[in-house]
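sanity check this chain:
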Amino acid sequence: MRVSSIMKRLGLKPSLNDPRWGSDKKDGEPQANEGKKPGEGPPDMEQLWRDFNQRLNSFFGQKKGPEGPNNGGPAGPGAPRPDMAGMRATAGAIGVVAALIWLASGSFIVQEGQTGIVYTFGKVSHTTGSGFNWRWPYPFQSDETVKVSQMRMVEIGYRGNVKNKQARESLMLTDDENIIDMQFAVQFKLKDPVAWLMNNRDEEDTVRQVAETSIREIVGKNKMDYVLYEGRDKVAYETQQLMQLILDRYASGVLISNVTLQAVQPPEQVQVAFDDAVKAGQDLERQKNEGQAYANDVIPKARGYASRLLQEAEAYRSMVTENATGNASRFKQVLTEYQKAPGVTRDRMYLETMQQIYSSASKVMVDAKSGSNLLYLPLDKLIAQAAATDATAAQARAAQASPPPVATLPSEVMPSVEVTRQRDSRSRESGRDREGR
């Protein structure tokens, strides 16, 4: 420790303007710079040292030694030097102060979220938690603090910004022999600070190299389209697992928290050609989807139509078969009855047949009494005329109840009514003539 610092602690303030500075003369002797004004010479070092010893002795409560020439008394022939005791006291005080300072240098403070590591002769002895701690000072022990709760990050393929690319790290080869440009970040924290410091030479560079190795292995096992699109999350997850496995094997004391893919794309030199290929693939998929949609629309309809035809054919076959079976059974029954009474059966069959024919015809054939002449009766027209007459009568009754506004029939209707009446009258007359004949 320097004399100036000791003098400052004891309250001494030497002045460089002391005229006795640098003089070898004792008190009472003529000074070489006598006659000079104050401030024109250096102070006397011997006097300063005596003042310092007196103050130090008074500070530690020591008594003054025997008087001597320098202390105001005569010096004996075998008397010791008057300043030896003061020097011993001064040396002891300095040693005590130095020891206290040396011991105090072993204290250190560990912040929250950090871990203190104490080395004994360069070997790790123990770790400390957060707060005030003490160790043996140098050269016995030393300490170092490590941030264990801090989330650290390393960047692979870029530095600071994705535009600042590192081609040696980002370019990788896929399983289908295509080159891909990948930029990603790895976030990690420490789980063993001792292993982090003792087992790694360059900690972050180790994590970066492990990350690059892991992702190259994962990408090399997959095709380019899988890495670019549907497999990005799986690639990041598998890379994280492989990195953790390798770092645990290295005993690096690192815990991988997350692997984030920042940019995954083809190299810039082939970006345009790759975009064209992607568009062509998208067009192919779109056309496939359109064709599949058309097939999904047409095929069910065709299958339904075919099923309907099969069911109709089956129904027709069943109908024809049942009709044939019924007709055959009916014929057998008729044959049995015919064999029992042929005449009655023939008449019955004739009547049923004629009934069936006349029931579906709109004309009636009437046999004349006096010959084979047939009278034709237009029953359909007669029925229609009767219906028209009934409607006219109903309208007349309604008109009498509440007379509607006068309306005239169109000229086209009148001749047709007259013609109808004439035909009806002629048909009646012709019928009477035929009956008279």
Notes: The CA atoms of residues 113 and 149 lie 5 Å apart. The two ends are 174 Å apart (CA to CA). Residues 271-340 form the longest helix (70 residues).
